[in-house]
Design brief:
With 247 residues, the protein is of the alpha+beta class. The chain has five helices and ten strands.
Length: 247
C-alpha cells in the first residue's frame, strides 16, 4: 500500500463542487471513478479544499491509497488520458502514509476576479464576476488591509461550515486593477466556508461607495455575518495554489 498525492486543476463550471455528493457530478467523484477504473480497485481521494459549485482551481491537492505497481509519478499521465478536458492532474508523487493535505501547515492562495465594465464580456462570463458600476479599486485596497493578520473572521463565514474555530490568519491580500479587470488575491493559513467570496462581496460594496474603507474593521470586529456584504458569485473564485511547509 502506498499513498499518492495529486495536484489537481479544474474548471468548476460543470461541477457541483469538489466533494462527492449523491446524484451530483463533482470533481472528486469524477476523479474517483476514473482512478478506480485505471487501477482496478476502489479509490476515494481526500482533498485539501472542498471548493463550491462553479469554483475553479489551478492547484488543489488530494491524496489516495493504492496497491498499484504503477509508479506514483506516472499516474498523472495515465489518469489524464481518461479524465474529461475540464479536469487535469498537474503532478502526482508518493508521500508518507500519514501525510494528509488537510492536516498540514500550509499557505493557501485564492484569487477573485471581477470584470468592471458597462456590459459583460461573454468570453469571461465563466471566470469573472461582472460589475457594471465603476468600482474604486484604491478604496477596496485600503479596506482589504484591515483583514491582514490573525483575526476572528466570523463575519466572513456562511452558516453550514464545519470548522471548530473561526480564527484564521491572512498573510497578504492585494487588490489590483488592470484595464477593466480587478483581481483580489488573498493568501492565508486557511479559509472558512465562503470566506473569500464574502470578503470579495464586501470589497465590491466598498468599491461601489456603499461603505467607506474603515467599515471593514467594524465588520471584522462585529463577528456577525449579517454585518458583511453579500457572498460574491462562485464563478469569479479560483484556488491558485497550496504550499506546504513539510511537503
Amino acid at each position: 500500500m502506498k499513498r499518492v498525492r495529486l495536484i489537481v486543476s479544474y474548471d468548476g463550471t460543470n461541477y457541483c463542487g469538489w466533494q462527492v455528493q449523491d446524484n451530483e457530478t463533482t470533481v472528486a467523484g469524477v476523479i474517483n471513478e476514473h482512478l478506480s477504473e485505471l487501477l482496478g480497485e476502489e479509490i476515494k481521494i481526500a482533498g485539501a479544499s472542498r471548493t463550491d459549485s462553479g469554483v475553479h482551481a489551478l492547484g488543489n491537492v488530494a491524496v489516495f491509497d493504492t496497491e498499484t505497481q504503477i509508479p506514483a509519478e506516472k499516474i498523472c499521465f495515465a489518469l489524464n488520458q481518461r479524465l474529461p478536458e475540464d479536469i487535469r492532474i498537474q503532478e502526482s508523487d508518493e508521500v508518507s502514509a500519514d501525510w494528509h493535505p488537510r492536516f498540514q501547515d500550509s499557505k493557501k492562495t485564492y484569487e477573485y476576479t471581477i470584470i468592471n465594465r458597462r456590459f459583460p464580456d461573454p468570453t469571461k462570463r465563466l471566470y469573472a464576476h461582472w460589475e457594471y458600476g465603476e468600482l474604486d479599486a484604491e478604496t477596496m485596497k485600503e479596506a482589504a488591509e484591515y483583514l491582514v493578520g490573525e483575526h476572528d473572521f466570523a463575519s466572513f463565514c456562511s452558516a453550514g461550515g464545519q470548522q471548530e474555530t473561526t480564527i484564521r490568519e491572512i498573510y497578504s491580500i492585494n487588490v489590483e486593477k488592470e484595464g477593466d479587470i480587478i483581481t483580489i488575491r488573498v493568501q492565508g493559513n486557511g479559509f472558512l466556508y465562503n470566506m473569500v467570496r464574502i470578503i470579495a462581496g464586501t470589497l465590491i460594496e466598498i468599491g461601489k461607495g456603499t461603505y467607506e474603507a474603515s467599515k471593514m474593521k467594524e465588520i471584522l470586529d462585529a463577528k456577525d455575518r449579517n454585518e458583511a456584504g453579500p457572498t460574491a458569485r462562485a464563478n469569479g473564485l479560483k484556488l491558485v495554489k497550496i504550499e506546504y511547509e513539510n511537503a
